[in-house]
Design goal:
Helices cover about 15% and strands about 35% of the residues. By secondary structure, it is α+β, with helices and mostly antiparallel strands. Strands 1-2-3-4-5-6-7-8 form an eight-stranded antiparallel barrel.
């Protein structure tokens, strides 16, 4: 179950899934004129894409998680995610440090060595955000993931289509894209 812990820690904005391979497409660009203050607040992880064999095996067991993005005391962002695991709510917080232009962050996984880069590729701040995460840890240990954040638990069909198109542009295949099912558990404001 350590691998599941790893997944949920990263699901917040990303997903740390063990050994993954980078798609052949170039990394996605950043949201132009990214406004961090508008990105703050409550998001739901509504969609994920990865080419990890572990992810493909476990994707049917995953459900939506809730994340709150808040300013960190020393700069950057605190990403606090709450998710259902073994019928209990778990909460994890990651510190996302600025890593270049606005919209680009990095974090160090508490479970896996290596630095992970997170890019906010596109957002309207009100309904959705598309993110791309990658890590280079050595031969055969690189990983990448596309993530759909939604301000609601039920993103509109056009937002889901936008995410699928984005994920495919990053080199992910149809079977590596999943829209996470809603759950009533762990989604309340106070969890």
């Amino acid at each position: 179950m350590a691998a599941l812990n790893v997944l949920w820690t990263g699901l917040a904005l990303l997903g740390i899934l063990g050994v993954l391979q980078i798609p052949t497409q170039a990394q996605a660009a950043l949201q132009p004129n990214f406004q961090e203050d508008k990105f703050l607040g409550l998001w739901f992880t509504s969609g994920l894409a990865s080419n990890s064999s572990w992810f493909l095996e476990k994707k049917k067991a995953l459900s939506m998680c809730k994340s709150v993005v808040a300013p960190a005391a020393d700069g950057g962002l605190n990403l606090t995610s709450t998710f259902l695991r073994k019928d209990q709510c778990e909460t994890r917080t990651l510190l996302l440090r600025p890593a270049g232009p606005p919209g680009c962050y990095s974090y160090t996984s508490p479970h896996w060595s290596g630095n992970h880069e997170v890019s906010v590729v596109e957002t309207d701040y009100e309904a959705y955000a598309l993110l791309y995460t990658e890590s280079f840890r050595g031969p055969g240990q690189d990983f990448c993931m596309a993530t759909l954040y939604s301000r609601t638990q039920a993103p509109k069909a056009e937002i889901k289509e936008k995410f699928a198109t984005f994920a495919k542009a990053q080199g992910f295949t149809e079977d590596s894209i999943v829209f996470l099912p809603q759950t009533d558990k762990c989604m309340e404001e106070n969890t």
